[in-house]
Amino acid sequence: MSITEVPLIINGEKVRSQTTEWLDVLNPATQEVVARVPIATAEEIELAVQSAQTAFKTWSKTSLTNRMRIMVNFAHLVRENTQELAELVTLEHGKTLPDAEGEVGRALEAIENASSVTRLQLGDMGNNVATGVDTYTLHKPLGVGLGITAFNFPLMLAAFMFPPAIACGNTFVLKPSEQAPSSTVRFVELAIEAGLPAGVINVVHGGPDAVNALIEHEHVKAVSFIGSTHVGTHIYNHASKHGKRAQSMMGAKNHMVIMPDANKDRAINDLLGSAFGAAGQRCMANPVTILVGKSRDWLPEIVERAKLMKVGPGSQRDADLGPVVSPQAKKRIISLLDSGVEQGATMLIDGRNCQVEGYPNGNFVGPTLFTNVTTDMDIYTQEIFGPALCVLEAETLEEAIAIINANPNGNGTSIFTSSGWNARLFENEIDVGQVGINVPIPVPVAFFSFTGSRASKLGDLGPNGKQTVSFWTQTKSVTARWFEPDHEDGLNVHTTISMK
């Protein structure tokens, strides 16, 4: 297999970096090097930002209609190239092809939402708010936006960021994860092919130094991040320190509550899919379930079904989960699973020594399930980001809600029940930003905003939906009064601030 050199994208062109630092991008199923990604130089980062700043002068004046049409073209091209994009995701991330194709679909939703930003960007108008006075608001673009994405959704997370920012009239610099960059670069190439002028979208690669340099740049006005809590907290604080608008969507510890009146088959299958799909590498995965009342009797069936899940390379379509992204990630996951045993949890399924025939070097971890978990154990307090499920038990729904509300994270939670009363009590009493009712992964469609909360989020506004326009624009209020040509009232001096 040939090894691809991942390019930068600056001023509408693919650019081979002049750096001396390159990182290997590995296929998680085989450890083969499939690409090399550059650590962009300071000069290349400067060129990318300057390109975006120059393009902003004209792009910000491009009509809403033309911006919308380019987003429509972009969505069409992404749909046409779904298979290519999905295969690139699977090659570098490891998730199964059906899962990667699903990610392309969620990215499409975000682009389609961006194509309708025009209706959200309309201001308000007050006619004759005082005698002869009109007041109206304009939602003006900020300037250069910056997006920093994690490895686990190289397309969807990018789609949460640059399409709405650009549709609002901003230009953009994207810094994707160096672990899975190729699909993101191809995604951006399609955006340029759709009609984005040179410099409107740029891509650079790098680590902490690159991120800090981008955040500190005078032309960067807003920063969007999705990834780990540790990195997201630094980015939010660093951006705020430098006067940038910032949002950080971060880590999680999501819980699924299963009530005894739930549809058993659906609840169990959705639990296993949300806990072990993508090898647990989702911030919206369900690594904890709380079995309430008699649903505790379903545990043996949950265990048996989990044991039947198939682990394999992402290219194998009948695999339920693929490898985790890197040997380092696997080592960290195994260490946490070991701690669960050491701290007294009961491991009913052990995925630590998972072997996949024909793939001896893959980063495979099998489905792992713990019971007798307490909320002070590391497997509960830390985000494992691997295929591990902690099973807790509760006598009542109120007890389950109390457990969830005591956890510092607030990304997502769900309840499986056939009772409207239970569902309504849950949605009103739970202190979590995104709630699913018989939906295991409650990420809303992109015309609603992503609303994680508490320790899972820094910043008031989330990606997608109406909030995206509030984040990527500034509101300008205009108060205007027009006089008749022969109007004479201006001969008098008025020292009051009132308008009547």
TrEMBL record:
One function term, GO molecular function aspect: methylmalonate-semialdehyde dehydrogenase (acylating, NAD) activity
InterPro entries on file: Ald_DH/histidinol_DH, Ald_DH_C, Ald_DH_N, Aldehyde_DH_dom, MeMal-semiAld_DH
CDD domains assigned: ALDH_F6_MMSDH (cd07085)
Naturally occurring in which organism (per UniProt): Colwellia psychrerythraea
Biological processes, Gene Ontology terms: L-valine catabolic process; thymine catabolic process
The name this protein goes by in its record: methylmalonate-semialdehyde dehydrogenase (CoA acylating)
Taxonomic classification: Bacteria, Pseudomonadati, Pseudomonadota, Gammaproteobacteria, Alteromonadales
Domain Aldehyde dehydrogenase: 17-478
Alphabetically ordered keywords of this record: NAD, Oxidoreductase
Family recorded in the similarity comment: Belongs to the aldehyde dehydrogenase family.
Gene3D superfamilies named in the record: Aldehyde Dehydrogenase, Chain A, domain 1, Aldehyde Dehydrogenase, Chain A, domain 2
Enzyme class: oxidoreductase
PANTHER family: MALONATE-SEMIALDEHYDE DEHYDROGENASE, METHYLMALONATE-SEMIALDEHYDE DEHYDROGENASE [ACYLATING], MITOCHONDRIAL
EC number of this enzyme: 1.2.1.27
Leader sequence segment: none
